[in-house]
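Journal club prep — side note

Before the paper discussion, L.F. wants everyone to see what a predicted structure for a comparable chain looks like in token form. Sequence:
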Amino acid sequence: MDSAKVTVVIPTYNKEKYIAQAIRSIECQTFQDIKILIVDDASTDNTVEIVKKMAPSNVKLIELEENKGICHVLNKALEHIDTKYFVQLDGDDWLVPEAVQLLFERLEKEKETTALAYANSAYWVHQNGVDNFRSIRKHRSLADRYDFVTFFGMVQPRFYRTECVKKVGGWETDDPTNGRMMEDRRMLLRLLDEYHFTYVNRILYHFRSDGKNLSSDKNAPIYNSLLKLYTDRALIRWGGHYQADYVEYIDGWDGVKLIPNENN
């Protein structure tokens, strides 16, 4: 697969129920110049055995000996990515067949200062062995980095220009969770120091919640503290033109409002 242009990175931890579907969704892509990189975070179930049994020819599997969390997993993946672009696909989610093709074509048309392409996603809840459709998460184009700061939630899928992610040093791990949570927003805030994003108005990603996701409501207080930590850091890096006001947005989850600094 030396001609591959895109790596699909699948971080996994105890995803035996879903990992086969994630892999099949990559095998069904209309875009074929793909590598699959699976980094398993020391699963204790049959995730690794299922991956090895499926064993597509374009899959590289890395097994971590110790469970370290999502940011460490993605940093390990970054060490092995040698394609121009990569997209993160969580081990319990799946992509529509045109996803990689459309995201690749979009970033190819953009300047090298565009670090990320994203689209819309479908939200599913897994209960009693059945996936139940809940909603479409339609995103939008972001006017600037401050627009992202006040954007509640997270964009999916995240299709990265590899060089940009490497230039910002990968994922940060120096936080109260040791890099186990909020890998997405903290990376995007770092990228916005220097780069821009682009939006594809199509449903390209399927996100599944089964109550075991790290971003479940029980972890809202931790996520809120991380939101404040990384938002405040970003606003300082960007010159201190705004201060953030953190207010409950929905069901214990905070959102951000920006207040102009009196000195600016």
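L.F.'s comment for the group: The chain has a mean pLDDT of 94. Keep this in mind when we get to the figures.
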